[in-house]
Amino acid sequence: MAQAAAVAKPPAPPRRRRASATPRRLPYLLIAPAALLMLGFIAYPVISVFYYSLQNFNPTKPWRNGFAGFDNFVQIFTKDTQFWDTLTFSAKWVIVEVGLQLLFGLALALIVNQTFVGRAVGRALVFSPWAVSGVLTSAIWVLLYNSQTGVTRYLADMGLGSYGTSWLSDTSTVFPAAIVADLWRGVPFFAILILADLQSVSKDLYEAAEVDGASRVKQFWHITLPHLKDAIVLSTLLRGVWEFNNVDLLYTLTGGGPAGETTTLPLYIANTSVDAHNFGYASALTTVAFVILLFCSIVYLRLSKFGGEEK
Amino acid sequence: MITEIAPAPERVAVEPARPRKNRRAWDEAPRWQIYVPLSIYLLFTLIPFYWILLFALRPAGSTSLVPWPMTLDHFEKVWNERAFGVYFQNSVLVGVATLVMTTLVALAGGYALARFDFRIKKAFMLALLCTQFVPGALLLVPLFEIFANLRMINSLASVIIAETVFQLPLSMILISGFIRNVPYSLEEAAWVDGCNRFTAFRIVVLPLLRPGLIAVGSFAFVHAWNHFLFALMFLSDQSKQTIPVGLNTLMSADSVDLGALAAGGIIAAVPVVLVFAFIQKWLITGFSAGAVKG
C-alpha cells in the first residue's frame, strides 16, 4: 500500500517544494518517540511517586493502605533520625567526591593537554577507569581491600599495619576507603570533559600573554580558568547530582555498612522500598530528595553565575 | 613585577630562530612537571587493574605478587559454573539494543530540536534538562509496577527500555548540538538538487555526524553494559541476568571466591575496554564539537 502510494505521487517538483517549506507536523513526529518514552517511563513514575508520598502504601500490610495526608513528611522531619543521618552522609559524600574529582581531574587534564612523548598512550591509560562500572569498581577494590590477600597483607609483610585489617569493615577507615575507590573511577570523567574544553581555548590568547610576559601560572588563572568556568560549573553540577543519586558503588562495596556508616539517602530509600516494602514512605523520602536536589542545583547555578558574564 | 617583564624581550629575540611550535606557552612546561605527576597518577590508575589481573590469573590460595604459574581455571569456572557465559550474552543484547534504540530515537529528536522552531520546543528542552535531576534509582518502585503491568518483568526488554529512556535526554541534547554545527545551507543545497529532506539528511548530514554519533552510541552501550540497578530489580531469573548482577552475586556470597570474582570482573571489563580504545579519538572531538560548548 505505502509503496503504491509513493509511486503514485507526482515526481520531483512538488516534493522539492514540500521539503524546503517547513512542514508543520514533522518536528512533532520526530520528537514523538522520545517524548512518549519519557512521558511513560520518567514523567509518569515521577507523578506516581508524588501521589504515593501522600499515601500509606505497603503491599505487605494492605489493611493500613490509604490516604495519609502529610503524615509521611511529618514523620521524616520530626522522628526519622535515619533520614538526617543519611542526608548528612550524602552531603559529605557528594562534596568530598566532587571536590576531589574536580581537583585531580583538572590537574590531569592540564598535564595530558601538554605535548609530550607518549601522550596518546598516557591519555588512554589515565582515562581508562572512566569506562569501568560501579560494580566492577567495587569488585576491584574488594580485591584490594580484603583482609586476607588484600593490600593490607602486603603492607603488613613490610611491617606497616597489622594482619587481618579490613578497611571496609572498620567505621574509622571505611569513608576514606570508599572515597578513594570512587575517585579512581570519577577523576577521568572530569579530566575528559575539561580536556575537551581546553582544546577550544584560542591559542592566540596564550601567545599574546606570552608576548606580554605573563607567567604560566598567570596564564592559567587569567586565560585557562575563566575559559573553563562554564564547563566546570556544568560538570560539577551534573556530577554532584550523579554522585548523590548513584547507588551502584556503595551498594556493592559496603552495602551501606558497617553499621549504616556509609548509607546515603538513596540507599536508605532503596532499603525502605525494596526490603521493607514501605512504598508510601519511600515515595515521601524520594519527594524530599528531589526537592533538596532541585534547591541545591538552583542555588549552585545562581552562586556560580552560570553563563552570566559573557552572554 | 620587573623580574617578570625582564625575560620577555630575551624570548622574543630568540624567537625567529626557533620553529613556531616551540614558542607556544603550553609547550614550555619542564618535562619533569609532566612526567612525575603523570607517573604517580598512572600508578594509582594501574595498580587496581594489575591487582584484578593478578587474582584472576594466579591459582587459588597463592599469595605471589606475580601471576605465575598462570592458570585460566578461574575463567573457566566463572564462565561455566557461575553462568557468566549466559550473563555475557544477555549483557551484549542489552547493550546493543540500547545503543541502537538510543541513537535512532535521539537522532530523530535531536534533528527536530536543531532544525525546527515549534511551539513546545522550549518546554521540551526544559523537560530534557530536568530529567538529569531525576534519579532512576529513586524511581525503581513505580518503574517496577509499570513493567509488571506490561508483563515485562523478567524480560530483557524491561531493562533495555529503562536504560534507553534514561540515556535519551543527554544523547538528544548532544546530538542536536552536533547537528547544529552542520551548516543548514548544506542541506538546503541538497534539496535544490532534488533530494527530499530525509535523503538530504542521510547523504549530507549523517556522514558529518559520525564522530558525535560514535561518542553518543558508545556512551549508551557502555552505560547499559555497566548499569546494575535496573537489571537487579527487573530480572529475577538467573538465566536473564546481566554481568553486573552476576558480579554482585559473587561479591555478596558469604565467603567471596576472589579468583572467580577477579575473572568475572575481567570478563565484564573486556568489551568496555575494547569500545573505549576504539572511540578514544572520537570521544574528545565529539565532545568538543558540541557537548561542552552547549
Taken together, the total number of domains of chain B comes to: 2
Helix content of chain B: over 70%
Number of helices of chain B: 14
How can the largest sheet of chain B be summarized?
A: none
How many beta strands in the DSSP annotation of chain B? Answer: 0
Name given to the CATH homologous superfamily of the largest domain in chain B: MetI-like
Largest beta-sheet characterization of chain A: 2 strands, antiparallel
Number of strands of chain A: 2
Q: What is the CATH level 1 assignment of the largest domain in chain B?
A: Mainly Alpha
Q: Helix share of residues of chain A?
A: over 70%
Strand order of the largest sheet of chain A: 1-2
Assembly status: heterodimer
| Average predicted local confidence, pLDDT of chain B | 82
Order of helices and strands of chain B: HHHHHHHHHHHHHH
Work out the largest interface and the residue count of each chain.
A-B, 109 and 110 residues
Distance between the amino and carboxyl termini of chain A: 52 Å
What fraction of the residues of chain B are assigned to beta strands by DSSP?
under 5%
What is the second-level CATH architecture of chain A? Orthogonal Bundle
- Specify the overall morphology of chain A: globular
